[in-house]
């Protein structure tokens, strides 16, 4: 058995005495694609904040590749290999997708010289491969401002991937996307899961069904239930707090 890439042990996060995360335990294997669902206010975003160092746990610990992240600054955690996709894209709209990705690659190399050198053939190939993975090979040289909402989100995912994180954290990636964009985002995350560990937080249950292997349900800052989509969907506690009436399978 491999040791977990992420191991969250008895973590509590208090905001003025209110426990947004309450004695949470969760472990993620290398290469896992884990989906986290739960009602509004369950603590999903705070859960990501505690992994990235934006908030500190008041109790418990977060281990990443065996290393305790307590009191580690956000930018250091990012450099250790945790990339986070926020809900609003942080893309330079006046640059092209290619240029945006180049910037991310260079930022991750911390070599000043990369700024002054032409990219090598190998760099160009890698960049082209990434553009293809995120579905933007045909729009590599247009201003990012004219991309659709979905395409901007994929570009930002690409910019994260360019920095070679081991663990990708993605908060509600398909909010505001068309059905087709949602479907393609699912395919993108599944293909990235071949080479990364990924945690996805999402509300859109159809999307969750498309990508889910292991699902964790959060409720009031704790893990309510964990399992396959089928197990979770049929768990009476999950139905009560989150899903509502039992779902009929279409005939
Ligand atoms: P979710 O993403 O599952 O909707 P959040 O993690 O955003 O939930 O919030 C969990 C709970 O913690 C909510 O009740 C929210 O109001 C509260 N909360 C989140 N951040 C803060 C904060 N900085 N200060 C006080 N309360 C907060
Ligand atoms: Mg949230």
Written overview of the protein:
- The chain has 251 residues and is of the alpha/beta class.
- It has a domain at 88-153.
- Helix content is 35%, strand content 24%.
- The chain contains nine helices and ten strands.
- It has helices at 44-52, 74-80, 97-109, 121-133, 149-161, 179-192, 205-211, 229-233, 236-243, and strands spanning 6-15, 18-28, 33-37, 59-64, 67-68, 82-85, 167-171, 197-201, 214-219, 222-227.
- The strands form two sheets. A six-stranded mixed beta sheet has the order 6-7-8-3-9-10, with helices on both faces. It has a four-stranded antiparallel beta sheet with strand order 2-1-4-5, covered by helices on one side.
- Strand 9 and strand 10 (222-227) form a beta hairpin.
- The N and C termini lie far apart (40 Å).
- The model has no long low-confidence stretch (mean pLDDT 91).
- Residues 15, 20, 38, 40-46 line the site of adenosine-5'-diphosphate.
- Magnesium ion is lined by residues 44-45.
